[in-house]
């Protein structure tokens, strides 16, 4: 499997973690030291992976259980050696997000090291 396909699978795992409200998938796809950062209602929002996993788990019932349509679009993936950036658009908790996901390849495994998000709606 090529590098781009591996990253696409990780982006799907990232989205599935939120769609299914699954904190284990959050912890699987993010590096333990990753940060989740952006602006919510014009205020800076920062979370650790642990905090984000708890937030994802708290979304009950999950979007999957509510049978909401999946909405994920990979806009671009740029790879430079063992680093990569994916720009994705997804719908989550009733909002449309534009996410910049920075990846590192550690021990042949791609993980998200940083998530910057912008709320579009």
Structure, briefly:
By secondary structure, the protein is an alpha+beta fold.
Task: State the end-to-end CA separation.
Answer: 35 Å
Give the averaged pLDDT, no decimals.
96
> Beta-strand percentage?
over 45%
Query: Any idea what the radius of gyration is?
Result: 14 Å
Can you walk me through this structure?
The structure is a single chain. By secondary structure, the protein is an alpha+beta fold. It is 28% helix and 49% strand. The protein has a six-stranded mixed sheet.
Compile the SSE list and pairings.
Blueprint: H1 3-19, H2 23-29, E1 30-40, E2 43-48, H3 49-58, E3 72-80, E4 83-92, E5 95-106, E6 109-119
Which short descriptors sum up this protein?
121 residues; six-stranded mixed beta sheet
């Amino acid at each position: 499997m090529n590098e781009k396909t591996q990253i696409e699978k990780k982006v799907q795992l990232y989205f599935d973690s939120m769609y299914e409200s699954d904190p284990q998938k959050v912890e699987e796809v993010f590096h333990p030291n990753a940060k989740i950062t952006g602006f919510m209602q014009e205020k800076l929002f920062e979370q650790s992976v642990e905090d984000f996993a708890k937030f994802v788990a708290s979304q009950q019932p999950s979007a999957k259980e509510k049978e909401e349509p999946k909405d994920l679009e990979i806009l671009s993936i740029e790879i430079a050696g063992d680093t990569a950036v994916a720009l994705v658009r997804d719908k989550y908790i009733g909002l449309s997000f534009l996410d910049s996901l920075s990846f590192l390849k550690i021990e042949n495994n791609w993980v998200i090291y940083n998530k910057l998000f912008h709320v579009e709606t």
